[in-house]
């Protein structure tokens, strides 16, 4: 297992060219679209050349000009973009989908049908049937499909994963993840336009906080330990001002092997900002990482002095982290660098697919379509559990 999941290489292979990226969504008022674009550019492996940046034609045109896109590659429809880019000799190599969750499925279908690799924001879809259909289409087309669980791109998250998989913590015994924010403390009518769609209660929106940040917490615990979630029980709450969907969730979890854990998420935890944290406890040691101080990983062996590992090269940092390090210690790296790291990995995978090359085993660990499907299954199970009064619900899925 370790040999398959870890590579000893301490650097990523150089690109043969910059790949061409198109973006759907991300225009004026968007938070996540410009983050995708910035991460792609920072990786040094992409140029953003086309976009359908809004469903509003006027906003799409204005945003495209602000992004300095060529006039003939500013689209007002993602379907038109998929059709025309697939016909161009210099068409996009991949599309980044940065739109509200309910639109991820039809946009993904449109680009997959044209043979264009997809990079989609999380959660993959709002229901499991659509997620499984995207998995089927991706495999049939033999394309690369990335899902941007961006925190997996932090170098010290990769360091933690390597330490767990190589046995430095011993046998994993507990997995705890929390993600606390306070931006949704108030009423939904106080939310910005870019956030208001998240809280609309309809048949296409089964949850708020679980789908928004809970999927990050779920993915991080599974990614670092290499252990899939098998079952959970969930308790939904509204701890901020009244709203139609949950803003706080507490979950008990069981990963493969019956390993117990917890997930605690809230977007109504007053005074918090982006408090994503995991704590992994094994038979020999524990690991503790906090997203707001992402360059630090705490490694504590039982009955031994505590250790603090700092992002950089050497000094105990393994190859999984080293190949994602951009600056020496003391020169801070943070979330944009994590985005750049996963966009670099997407580029390597997409370039290899297009050139018919093999990627060295264990070199790339980016979140993919399977991670996206399992994230949707997690949300679905949490919603079911809460509706049933907090009963245990199975999370396993053959993918």
Question: Your description of this structure?
Answer:
The mean pLDDT is 95. The chain is globular and about 65 Å long. The strands form two sheets. The protein has a nine-stranded mixed β-sheet. A five-stranded parallel β-sheet has the order 2-1-3-4-5, sandwiched between helices. It has two domains: 2-150, Rossmann fold (3-Layer(aba) Sandwich); 155-293 and 295-327 and 368-387, 2-Layer Sandwich (Dihydrodipicolinate Reductase, domain 2). It is an alpha/beta fold. It has helices at residues 2-5, 32-42, 57-66, 78-87, 104-112, 128-141, 155-165, 193-196, 209-225, 319-322, 335-355, 369-387, and strands at residues 19-24, 46-52, 94-97, 117-120, 145-147, 172-180, 229-237, 248-255, 259-266, 275-282, 285-290, 296-301, 307-310, 393-394. The two termini are 18 Å apart. Helix content is 34%, strand content 21%.
What is the count of DSSP helices, taking H or I runs of 4+ residues? 12
User: Shape, please?
Assistant: globular
Q: Measure the end-to-end span.
A: 18 Å
Biggest sheet features: 9 strands, mixed
Layout of strands and helices, then pairs:
Elements: H1 2-5, E1 19-24, H2 32-42, E2 46-52, H3 57-66, H4 78-87, E3 94-97, H5 104-112, E4 117-120, H6 128-141, E5 145-147, H7 155-165, E6 172-180, H8 193-196, H9 209-225, E7 229-237, E8 248-255, E9 259-266, E10 275-282, E11 285-290, E12 296-301, E13 307-310, H10 319-322, H11 335-355, H12 369-387, E14 393-394
Parallel strand pairs: 1-2, 1-3, 3-4, 4-5, 6-9
Antiparallel strand pairs: 6-10, 7-8, 7-14, 8-9, 10-11, 11-12, 12-13
Helix pairs in contact: 2-11, 5-6, 6-12, 9-12
């Amino acid at each position: 297992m370790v040999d398959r999941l870890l590579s000893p290489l301490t650097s990523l292979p150089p690109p043969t060219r910059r790949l061409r990226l198109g973006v759907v969504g991300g225009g004026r008022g968007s938070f996540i679209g410009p983050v995708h674009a910035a991460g792609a550019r920072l990786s040094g492996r992409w140029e953003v050349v086309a976009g359908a940046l809004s469903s509003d034609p006027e906003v799409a045109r204005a945003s495209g000009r602000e992004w300095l896109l060529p006039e003939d590659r500013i689209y007002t429809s993602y379907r038109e973009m998929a059709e025309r880019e697939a016909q161009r000799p210099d068409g996009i190599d991949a599309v980044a989908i940065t739109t509200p969750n309910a639109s991820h499925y039809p946009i993904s279908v449109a680009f997959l049908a044209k043979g264009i690799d997809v990079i989609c924001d999380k959660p993959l879809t709002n229901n499991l049937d659509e997620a499984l259909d995207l998995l089927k289409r991706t495999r049939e087309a033999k394309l690369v499909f990335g899902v941007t669980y961006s925190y997996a791109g932090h170098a010290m998250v990769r360091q933690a994963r390597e330490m767990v998989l190589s046995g430095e913590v011993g046998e994993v015994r507990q997995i705890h993840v929390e993600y606390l924010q306070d931006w949704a403390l108030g009423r939904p009518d106080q939310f910005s336009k870019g956030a208001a769609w998240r809280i609309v209660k309809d048949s296409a929106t089964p949850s708020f906080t679980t789908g928004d940040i809970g999927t990050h917490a779920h993915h991080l615990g599974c990614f670092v330990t290499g252990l899939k979630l098998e079952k959970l029980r969930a308790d939904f709450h509204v701890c901020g001002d009244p709203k139609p969907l949950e803003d706080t969730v507490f979950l008990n979890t069981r990963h493969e092997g019956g390993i117990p854990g917890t997930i605690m998420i809230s977007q109504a935890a007053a005074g918090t900002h982006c408090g994503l944290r995991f704590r992994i406890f094994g038979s020999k040691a524990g690991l503790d990482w906090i997203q707001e101080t992402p360059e630090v990983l705490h490694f504590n062996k039982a009955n031994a002095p505590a250790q603090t590992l700092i992002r950089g090269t050497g000094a105990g940092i393994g190859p999984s982290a080293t190949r994602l390090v951009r600056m020496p210690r003391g020169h801070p790296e943070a979330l944009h660098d994590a985005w750049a790291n996963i966009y670099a990995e997407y580029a390597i995978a997409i370039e290899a697919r297009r050139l018919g090359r093999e990627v060295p085993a264990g070199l790339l660990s980016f979140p993919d379509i399977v991670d996206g499907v399992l994230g949707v299954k997690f949300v679905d199970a949490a919603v079911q559990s809460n509706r049933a009064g907090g009963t245990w619900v199975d999370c396993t899925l053959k993918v």
